[in-house]
Design brief:
heterodimer, A: Pyruvate-ferredoxin Oxidoreductase, domain 3, Rossmann fold, seven-stranded mixed beta sheet, six-stranded mixed beta sheet, B: Rossmann fold, eight-stranded mixed beta sheet, three-stranded antiparallel beta sheet, 30% helix, binds thiamine diphosphate, binds iron/sulfur cluster, binds magnesium ion
């Protein structure tokens, strides 16, 4: 059977076994395509396990630049017998199956509508290597070599990548190259190369860099001036704290003394993490933690204190499906409500929604300015999909004239000059009071920090009026926050559209692609990507300006939709749920399907039903 | 109701310390605890210790959890920043504050419920990290603020005011602090100012995690017959290992005790702890011996008080983390932000 022909637009999926060393070989494969100038987007699909269970690595190649996940597989690299059946089943008709044919696989295990490519990887390895570990590692490189021939990937880019990867361990370059060419030569000599799926040099990658959101956010925290990091390991947030640590060790050591301009504590639990963040931030150091949903649950009491005590804490929440040991390695956007209203009592928190690694960096830095300016906890809401997968993103930039905005901090000189200090006094009318760092002045500016039982001058009182005044001031501060947080980004259809779509975070890539497809099919939408809570007034204007608005998100209960309804007093009927929540990243196909169904004029649908 | 600070008019004859402050400058708002509560005596001892040590009040940060004991920071050091955090979690807030500014003195005040019940985890981890702080547990064996339930330090068999008998084995915070690596461990009694004030002074000048378990009877819920944290019980069963005098750094040491019975311990800042030994060969620098001694006397029903252990010149959390001398909260953009050029290099490596 002759296979599908697709140039620079296909999906390759690797089915591997956890712990078999496939990760770096697969990454080499993805990077080689990018080096040819063709955007490729890898995604790891992995279990909560260290060794032995199935993992997948999916690479979407898209010259058009679609970075979202796509349904269906064009080429399956089936290296895991445990998942063979479903892997083979996931190949699109006309697609390709690449497998190790060292051992016999019975006829009925294949499909007639796909092209089967067998390479004797294991026997090649056994012949060449005697060491068991080397056999396993180089088997992966050998398949990259074979794939390079099959997909017409330039050997020179792989050579270049290997020499960069091992520049510090040069002795490893030659054996890797040898394994790569072992696979490549075998394929050229024994198979019809290339197959219908091909990589052709292009220029759509441009200046972009390849990085995952967690690494970018950790770097953002370095640029944002964070000095205290307290964290407790949890997938998918761990690599964020690790990134901060790595970049601090590179960029934040005092050259004169060799000492650290940062303090990182791996705590005993998330309660201690947020406690330390609150203590550090109270005392004037930019402090943050990185966690995921279960950690947010544990932090609830402290988050309320931070809200009422007006502490500039920064929390990176890399979201995953719940609950604690539910689907810890699957992605979702499911902590919006628990973060937005975290804790008891009336609370509302500032949330930021980065959509890609570039924004993870930007918001990772900006969160600290916002927290200091607004004197309140700020959550940066990543998720597993953008946090843990490397993705092409525009390069980072930084303006060297930018300075940290430490917000309203009264100095010893101002206190000495007799400036009135009331910790909870709204002198500027924006709801944001002034604060002092402990130890500022011998006799002025000290105050006692507690929840709410105090007046504007931080004097203890349990009276109702001061309590209420304080609560109202906090609402004024919430209003003020609207003008400080990142504004939503609106993109209107070419012609006036009746319907709009609101989305955020990691849904953006799939939504962009879906909007293109929908427009081609005559269902053009106006788009609004929200980037923060509180919502700017323009978000509500957008909803007002459309008959109906689709709210596209990755959770079961429509959490962004609920926030919109609640914060904007929106009639729920006007917001249509488009929800994806099986733990895989949302796809454009899914969005197109859901929105097209709702687009279909109601009478027509009834007619169709009647005809059945 | 609103509580007001005490009037600050000073009596002209009040003695001042070398900073020119009177004792009143170290006081706080009027206490709202029950009259006779042990916790108020501890507050008074803190005031005296800070006054006598000539500490600038604003250079101290006082942090607490929740409970009657945790309310006390309002009643001392009115010119210090204070933080009444959440129940059982003061240690983490204090640790974070300490990371932010290593130059201040951190005073953590907690209760036995706050530290031994809900907060045992944070207590333990702050000790093992070696956070430079003074950590005082005002230990009355009950939850005062929620009206007299047993806490985790209540002795098995102790009887509550309502006649309930505690069936759980007690946690000895001093034993735990020793085990976990606190470098200054003491126990005292709120009714014994002569012992408590020098202990607090010594703890305040100690570098590292200094822990004081201070038995502090709750006159409302745990001062009756059958209680093992009452004034009478503690007085009867107190087995002090030493009486401490604190001598600040540069001052001359006058020896007025019989040689052989006095042990001098010099701390890293030059201050000298002069221990009048009461219990024979008790050696305050021997951690293992201290643990054995405690256990032996506990079995005899005795409450061992005094300075139980001190380790000199031990590193603190900042030493372990190798942080810069300058407080982290004072570092500016040039010290923290690597800048655009470094970012361009990072970009280049990611292509
Ligand atoms: C999370 C939480 N649970 C329960 C309480 C109620 N509570 C307040 S104080 C306290 C016990 C305090 O006991 P202790 O620390 O011994 O202080 P004391 O009043 O005896 O000085 C409790 C249980 C609370 N404030 N927070
Ligand atoms: S209830 Fe007990 S602990 Fe609380 S103030 Fe009264 S005497 Fe003190
Ligand atoms: Mg108590």
């Amino acid at each position: 059977m002759s296979g599908t022909v697709k140039i620079n637009d296909f999906v390759v999926k690797f089915a591997n076994i956890n712990g078999s060393g496939s990760a770096s070989a697969n990454a080499l494969f993805a990077r080689s395509i990018i080096r040819m100038g063709v955007p490729a987007t890898p995604r790891n699909i992995f279990p909560s396990n260290i060794q032995g269970l199935p993992t997948w690595y999916e690479v979407r190649v898209s010259e058009a630049g679609h970075l979202g996940a796509r349904d269906g597989v064009d080429l399956m690299v089936a290296m895991n017998p445990q998942t063979w059946d479903r892997d083979v089943a996931s190949i699109l008709p006309g697609g390709y199956l690449f497998y190790d044919n060292t051992r016999f696989v019975p006829e009925e295990k294949f499909r007639p509508d796909i092209t089967v490519i067998g390479v004797p990887l294991t026997s090649m390895c056994n012949e060449r290597y005697s060491d068991a570990r080397l056999r396993q590692l180089f088997r992966n490189i050998i398949y990259v070599g074979a794939l390079s021939a099959l997909l017409d990937i330039d050997a020179s880019v792989v050579e270049q990548l290997l020499s960069e990867q091992f520049h510090a361990k040069e002795q490893l370059i030659a054996p890797n190259l040898e394994a790569f060419y072992l696979g490549r030569k075998w394929a050229i000599e024994n198979l019809d190369c290339p197959i219908g799926l091909r990589v052709r040099r292009a220029t759509t990658v441009g200046e972009r860099i390849m990085i995952d959101g967690n690494t970018a956010a950790g770097l953002g925290a370095v640029y944002g001036g964070a000095t205290v990091c307290a964290w407790y390991p949890i997938t998918p947030s761990t690599s964020l704290a690790e990134s901060f640590t790595r970049y601090c060790n590179r960029l934040r050591i005092d050259p004169a003394t060799g000492k650290n301009r940062f303090a990182i504590v791996q705590t005993e639990d998330e309660l201690a993490s947020i406690g330390m963040v609150i203590g550090g931030a109270w005392n004037g150091a930019r402090s943050f933690t990185a966690t995921s949903g279960p950690g947010i649950s544990l932090m609830q009491e402290f988050l309320g204190l931070a809200y009422f005590a007006e502490i500039p804490a920064v929390i990176f929440d890399v979201q995953r499906a719940g609950p604690s040991t539910g689907m810890p390695t699957r992605t979702q956007q499911c902590d919006l409500i628990s973060a937005a209203y975290a804790s008891h009592g009336d609370t509302k928190h500032v949330l930021l929604f980065p959509a890609d690694a570039h924004e993870c960096f930007e918001m990772g830095a900006q969160a600290f300015d916002l927290a200091d300016r607004l004197q309140t906890p700020v959550f940066v809401m990543l998720d597993l999909d953008i946090g843990m997968n490397e993705r092409l993103t525009s390069p980072f930039d930084w303006d060297d004239s930018r300075r940290m905005d430490r917000g309203k901090v009264m100095t010893a000189e101002e206190l000495e000059a007799g400036r009135d200090f009331g910790r909870y006094l709204d002198v500027d009318g924006d709801g944001i009071p002034w604060r002092t760092y402990p130890g500022t002045h011998p006799t002025r500016g000290s105050y006692f920090t507690r929840g709410t039982s105090r007046d504007e001058y931080a004097r203890y009182t349990e009276a109702g009026r001061p309590y209420q005044r304080n609560m109202e001031r906090l609402l004024r501060k919430w209003e003020t926050a609207k003008s400080y947080v990142p504004a939503p980004i609106r993109r209107d259809a070419a012609k006036p559209a009746r319907y709009g779509a609101i989305y955020f975070g990691s849904t953006a890539d799939a939504m962009d692609e879906a909007a293109g497809i929908l427009a081609e099919r005559g269902m053009a939408l106006d788009l609004l990507r929200v980037r923060a809570l509180p919502f700017a007034d323009s978000v509500m204007d957008f909803i007002d300006g459309h008959e109906k608005v689709f709210v596209v998100e990755q959770n079961r209960d429509g959490q962004l939709r609920s926030l919109l309804i609640n914060e904007g007093d929106i009639d729920p009927k006007r917001l249509i749920r488009v929800l994806h929540y099986d733990g895989t990243p949302i796809t454009a196909q899914m969005i197109v399907g859901a929105i097209s169904a709702a687009f279909a004029p109601a009478p027509a649908r009834e007619l169709a039903q009647a005809a059945e | 109701m609103t509580y007001l600070a005490k009037p600050t008019l000073h009596h002209p004859d009040l003695p001042t310390n070398t900073l020119g402050y009177t004792r009143r400058d170290y006081e706080g708002a009027v206490s709202t605890l029950c009259a006779g509560c042990g916790h108020d005596s501890i507050s008074a001892a803190i005031v005296r210790a800070c006054f006598e040590l000539d500490l600038p009040p604003h250079r101290i940060a006082k942090l607490s959890g929740i409970g009657c004991s945790s309310k006390t920071p309002t009643y001392f050091l009115g010119n210090s920043h204070g933080f009444n955090s959440v129940h059982g979690r003061m240690p983490s807030v204090l640790t974070g504050a300490n990371l932010a500014n290593r130059d201040l003195i951190y005073l953590g005040v907690s209760g036995d419920g706050d530290s031994a019940s809900i907060g045992i985890g944070q207590f333990a981890h702050a000790m093992r990290r070696g956070v430079n702080m003074v950590y005082i547990v005002e230990n009355n064996g009950v939850y005062g603020l929620t009206k007299g339930q047993f806490s985790a330090t209540a002795d098995r068999g102790a009887k509550s005011k309502r006649g309930v008998v505690n069936i759980d084995s007690p946690i000895d915070m001093v034993g735990m602090a020793l085990e976990l690596g606190a470098t200054f461990v003491a126990r005292s009694f709120s009714g014994d100012k002569a012992q408590l004030v020098p202990l607090i002074k010594a703890a305040l000048t100690h570098k590292g995690a200094a822990f004081i378990d201070c038995i502090s009877p709750c006159v409302s819920f745990n001062n009756h017959l059958g209680s093992t944290k009452s004034f009478d019980y503690v007085r009867e069963h107190n087995a002090a290992v030493n009486k401490l005098d604190y001598v600040a750094g540069q001052k001359e040491i006058t020896v007025d005790y019989a040689p052989g019975k006095v042990e001098l311990v010099t701390q890293h800042d030059g201050s000298v702890l002069r221990l009048r030994k009461l219990a024979g060969e008790y050696d305050v620098t021997d951690r293992i011996a201290a643990m054995e001694y405690l256990a032996g006397h506990y079995a005899k029903g005795e409450v061992v008080t005094g300075l139980l252990y001190v380790s000199l010149d031990s590193p603190d959390l900042h030493d372990y983390l190798n942080t810069v001398e300058k407080p982290l909260n004072t570092l500016d953009d040039s010290e923290l932000c690597p800048g655009a050029a470094a970012l361009q290099r990072i970009n280049a490596a990611l292509r």
